[in-house]
Amino acid sequence: MTLERPDWDSYFMMIATVVASRSTCLRRQVGAVIVRDRQILSTGYNGAPRGVSHCSAEGCLREKLGVPSGERHEICSGSHAEINAIAQAAATGVVTQGGWIYCTHEPCVYCTKALINAGCRRVVFMNPYPDELARRIARESGVEFVHYPPEKLPVDLLLRAIEGGK
Questions:
Q1: Which residue is catalytic, options 74, 82, 144, 151?
Q2: pLDDT tens profile 58-78
Q3: pTM (2 decimals)?
């Protein structure tokens, strides 16, 4: 009997999807997992910094002001999943140099620059994000950016695992 297992990209993307479920953002739930040599280094999801009120409690300022997606990040009290994954690694003394990051969404320009400077060599994302400057910088940096289509996520394997392998 051969047991069907997810490939590594699918495995880490499923984990990033679960990490996204911790998000406190009212607009979109984003998760990220930084790995190196197939070992998880750090995770992050989008939400307010430690000790700061969550948008789920205070409301979303960008939503109240009618700010479109992809604009005016500076008026958001939350941090993006990728930044939080980098910060979590830094806070615990984990080196991200040479790592790969799996994100449920394509990184914005701020996160793209941070990932490049954190030494991530590969970025795998599921849902595209409308940020052409981020894409230009990504291409120029030499860091590999890979789109992982959402329909490729092996939900059947995840459900099988939840059901105890039945």
A1: 82
A2: 888 888 888 887 778 787 888
A3: 0.92
